[in-house]
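Q: My labmate handed me this sequence with no annotations at all. I'd like to see what the chain might look like in three dimensions before we decide whether it's worth expressing. Could you predict it?
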Amino acid sequence: ENGSEAKPRNISKVGVLGGGLMGAGISHVSVAKANVPVRVKDVSNDGILNAINYNHKLFAKQKKRRILTKAGVQYNMSQLTGGTDYVGYRDADIVIEAVFEDLALKQSMVKEIEQHAKDTTIFATNTSSLPIHQIAAECERPENVVGLHYFSPAEKMPLVEVIPHEGTSDEVISTAVNFARKQGKTPIVVA
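A: Here is what I predict for the chain of 191 residues:
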């Protein structure tokens, strides 16, 4: 069962945890390609600024190449906000985590999202080495947890691995696949 039977949910707002290179690239394809507003959360204001500056550089390049107008750059930048707390996460449909490869940290992030977002919010973890079922092990809604593994740099690399664990719902798998496509990616579901 690859989850393709289930109807994907609509994603109209995205949260990105981590303003590093990975988080910045993921937020970029979400705003630029999937056309959804993104709220970046980082432990430091520097992380937020990094993600915002990184995006601005990419949009400025697109303006130079006449892909975007000045108004287009301004509009895209207005779709990208950030903070060091969970303000603006209440209505996030998907939260993509791009923090350090640390199991305890990722487990605590899932719990925090469960507190600060909706019951239906998908928690997508961008891990390359940690088992998804372990990341979901201590949370209340493991059906919402899925791996969404981007390759670096996320704004350039076309492939995204969608990695469900046994408890991930078909609807969540289907939504993750569909959203990765909207980000301009080629998603493959891997066990």
